[in-house]
Design brief:
Blueprint (H helix, E strand, L loop, with lengths): L1 H14 L2 E2 L3 E2 L4 E7 L7 H18 L3 E9 L11 E9 L5
Amino acid sequence: MNKLLIISICLLLTACAIDTGIVPLTNHTFSLSKQAATGFSGIDGVRESVRQEARQFCDNLQKTLKVISSYETQPPYIFGNFPKADITFACVVNPAE
């Protein structure tokens, strides 16, 4: 019974996470937001996940990530103030080209 309860709680918490995906703002800029499902995960993983997804998006376009702005929620991570990272970015032509 305990295993079932733990699995149910994990699924419930995972379902509450927020991920906007890549959102086009203009022809050359994009945004991405991610929020953890709980306050227990901390901001580091969320921050890295946002930057990695943006970097991968630009890599797929054979361009380089240029961060225009970023925002992270601040602790304490309670009462719905869960770790959240927002990034506004552009994909620019690689300087080596």
